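Sample entry (289 residues):
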Amino acid sequence: MKTMLIPVDFSENSLITCKYAIKIAGATTPTTLHLLHIYPDQLMIPDSSFPSGIDSDAFMNVQFIEELKQQSEIRMTGLLQETEAYLVENKINNITLSHSITGGDAEWEIRNLCDDLHPDIIVMGTHGAGKKGFLEGSMAENIMDHASIPVIAVPKTTKRCRIQNIMYASNASENDFAKINLLLNLFKETPINISVMHLVSENKKDQGVAFINDLKEAFSTEKKLDKVRFFVIDAEDKQNALETFVEHQHIDVIAFISHKSNIFKSLFSQKLNKKDFFKLDLPMLAMHE
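Predicted structure, serialized as tokens:
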């Protein structure tokens, strides 16, 4: 049994995210998709709106919060019905839907539910870096940094649920072997190709090539080279190199190890970080160190 946690905000991206999670789950392993919606349960009203003597900072409009909750329940029912219809239409019978609705801080509630539900992966839509709202890019980044399980962020521009070509951004970490195997396990029911990409500067090329050769040898021993390919890219223009690689290899998903202190400072220098990956409008899979 596998469990996926799917935070939703009822935007048009919510159904896309659910379909994406269904694609990851495959058609045989029993899987529960748990949809979670968090509504704000405290509304701060400016001081000028109240007579003197009332502590407006602690004020909560109970009636409005109750309306938010009721609307959330109605919209959750609609999303569950749409997702169930998609399962029936595609004759998928190994997936069970569950849900919860709660008030509070989105990041905090997601972490709390992870402690209670013990999901295998979080699949969340994102509106992109700099956007405001329940699932804005900055919140997705924070969840990626702090979650102890893999997190997939699905941009709202995602038009198809293809998961075939995965780029793994290597930073020559001792964890690379384990994380690439984790990718193979996560997508074991989906035919995938993993392109391991390591970007190097000219003065570190020999070191990078040696590391990738050792990594390649490890996968050769396990007879997995039919699914995993390795690339050492010598490039001074890191952003252009990334975009070119993604285009030429027809990448569908970008995977990486997420560190609280940005790993891309060492891998790509300060010219590239998670925000640059959001700009590519591709699903991103972050794995904890």
